[in-house]
Design a protein that fits this description.
The protein is of the alpha/beta class. The chain has helices at 10-21, 47-54, 72-85, 101-105, 127-133, 169-192, 225-234, 303-309; strands at residues 3-7, 29-30, 35-37, 42-44, 59-60, 89-93, 111-115, 123-124, 138-145, 155-162, 208-209, 241-245, 248-257, 271-275, 278-282, 287-295, 301-302. Helix 4 links the parallel strand 6 (89-93) and strand 7.
């Protein structure tokens, strides 16, 4: 079975590697244009492009796919390449461009999407982050038959996985990437013999995983210790949860609720106690123990090491508040 692949980040690279390892022929890869990155802001190829080049697969990088859109020449060239590939199916994983109807209609088996949630929960751009932030007990991967809507297509295969108390977006991403790669191979094998069953998404339980914005990184100490812990894990590795320490911004990379109640009179964000294993901070409800911190331009450090170079005093209020 010939399968075009469209994807950009590391999550998609894992799926492409699984397809190739399974012996599925990939005549063409679509990925986002190279972007400037790093301190030198040099153009860098996406993980999917790097993988495709390593395997000698032709790559197309249109800036848009709408024939009547902002980049009609790119779209026309992409259409010619897609038609020449003569693929039976197209697999899409975190590609980053909206597929117009002509793309959806081109392969005889249509376009299959690898989506990192249990649809219809967490349609949209950031399902892994939002599932952790919301405190979901489980998530998973849905292989979906794409249609013109935003993650509204029929479900083809679904597999669930629990979200552990220590899971971050980084750890859950890697687990779901592997799961997605395995499921898409299974889906294509079933499609080849007519064994896939499409199930419409239920109308109940629809939620949207809106894109993560840097502005969300600031910790609101008025939230509960549990809610802040979830946000810290959801924003690891990007954008990182941060708070003000005087005039300086520091990032919090690991923490856990202690289960203790906030002492009477303590302000939200107030440092209550310090030890090498953690800094206890009062929240809107409950106490949060910070375990790994990072100064601007520095490395992630266990609290014990952080405190040796940047001592704190009980009573200090994080987040820009005045000392208690």
């Amino acid at each position: 079975m010939k399968t075009i692949f469209a994807g950009t980040p590391d999550f998609a690279r894992v799926a492409l590697e699984r397809l190739l390892a399974a012996g599925i022929e990939v005549p063409l890869v679509l990925t986002q244009p190279d972007r400037p990155a790093g301190r030198g802001m040099k153009l860098q190829a996406s993980p999917v492009k790097q993988c495709a080049l390593d395997h000698g697969i032709p790559v197309a990088q249109p800036r848009g796919l709408r024939l009547d859109g902002k980049f009609p020449e790119d779209a026309a060239a992409a259409r010619a390449a897609l038609e020449a590939a003569g693929a039976d199916a197209m697999v899409v994983a975190a590609y980053g461009l909206i597929l117009p109807q002509w793309v959806l209609d081109l392969p005889r088996l249509g376009c299959l999407n690898i989506h990192a949630s249990l649809l219809p929960r967490w349609r949209g751009a950031a399902p892994i982050h939002r599932s952790i932030e919301a405190g979901d007990a489980e998530t998973g991967v849905t292989i979906m038959q794409m249609d013109a809507g935003l993650d509204t297509g029929a479900m083809l295969l679904v597999e669930r996985t629990p979200i552990a108390a220590a899971d971050t977006t980084a750890t859950l991403h890697d687990r779901l990437a592997g799961l997605g790669g395995r499921l898409i191979v299974e889906a294509l094998e079933l499609a080849a013999c007519g064994g896939l069953t499409a199930t419409p998404q239920p109308p109940e339980g629809v939620t949207y995983a809106h894109k993560i914005e840097k502005a969300e990184s600031a910790i609101d100490w008025r939230l509960s210790a549990e809610a802040i812990d979830r946000r810290v894990r959801a924003f690891d590795p990007f954008p990182g949860a941060s708070t003000q320490l005087g005039a300086e911004t520091i990032k919090v990379w690991a923490c856990e609720p202690t289960g203790a109640a906030v002492p009477a009179g303590a302000a939200a964000g107030q440092v209550l106690a310090m030890q090498d294993t953690g800094v206890d901070v009062a929240c809107g409800s409950g106490v949060l123990r910070l375990a790994v911190l990072q100064r601007a331009g520095g490395k992630r450090l266990p609290v014990g090491d952080f405190l040796r170079g940047h001592p704190l005093a009980p009573g200090l209020v994080l987040g820009g508040g005045a000392p208690a």
